[in-house]
Amino acid sequence: MNQGRIWTVVSPTVGLPLLLGSVTVIAILVHAAVLSNTTWFPKYWNGKTAAITSTVQVG
């Protein structure tokens, strides 16, 4: 591990929870942004498939 000396500055009992907590917060923020800015994602989480609502007329 090329960044192994970081644990001489920050204790692993403090650094690892901060690292994992920040990853969790970022993931929650990304999911919240996708949920609030799309129409298909909430439907997907509710178990509905994204069906085409308009018909295509040929000719």
Automatic annotation (TrEMBL):
Family: Belongs to the antenna complex alpha subunit family.
A Pfam family hit: LHC
Higher taxonomy: Bacteria, Pseudomonadati, Pseudomonadota, Alphaproteobacteria, Hyphomicrobiales
Role this protein plays: Antenna complexes are light-harvesting systems, which transfer the excitation energy to the reaction centers.
Keywords annotated in UniProt: Antenna complex, Bacteriochlorophyll, Cell membrane, Chlorophyll, Chromophore, Light-harvesting polypeptide, Magnesium, Membrane, Metal-binding, Transmembrane, Transmembrane helix
Membrane topology: Single-pass type II membrane protein
GO annotation terms (biological process): photosynthesis, light reaction
Domain (Antenna complex alpha/beta subunit) ranges: 4-41
Gene Ontology, cellular component aspect: organelle inner membrane; plasma membrane; plasma membrane light-harvesting complex
Subunit structure: The core complex is formed by different alpha and beta chains, binding bacteriochlorophyll molecules, and arranged most probably in tetrameric structures disposed around the reaction center. The non-pigmented gamma chains may constitute additional components.
GO MF entry, a single one: metal ion binding
Positions of transmembrane segments: 14-35
Subcellular location: Cell inner membrane
Name of the molecule in the record: Light-harvesting protein
Primary location class: membrane
